[in-house]
Amino acid sequence: MPILLPQTTSSRPLGRWTASAAHVRAVILAAGAAVAAVVGSRPDLLVIAAPLVVAAIWGQLTRPRGAAVAEVTLSNGTLREGDIASLVVRVNGAPGADGVFTLASSRWVERKPRSGVAPIENGVGSLALRTTRWGRREVGTVSVSMSSDWGAYHVGPTDVPDLATATLPVPAAFDASAPTPHPRGLIGLNRSARPGSGSEFNTIRQFHPGDRLRRIHWPVSLRTGELHVTSTYADEDAHVLLLVDAFSDLGPREGIDGRPTSLDLTVRAAGAISEHFLSSGDRLTLRTVGAANVPRLGAGSGARHLRRVLETLASISPASERRDDGERAVRGVDANALCLVLTPLVDQTMVGLAHTLASRGMTTVVVDTFPEHLTDNPGNVYEALAWRIRLLSRQAQVHSLVTRGVPVVPWRGPGSLDHVLRDIARRASAPRMGRRR
Question: Looking at the domain 239-429, which fold is it?
Answer without folding.
Answer: Rossmann fold (3.40.50)
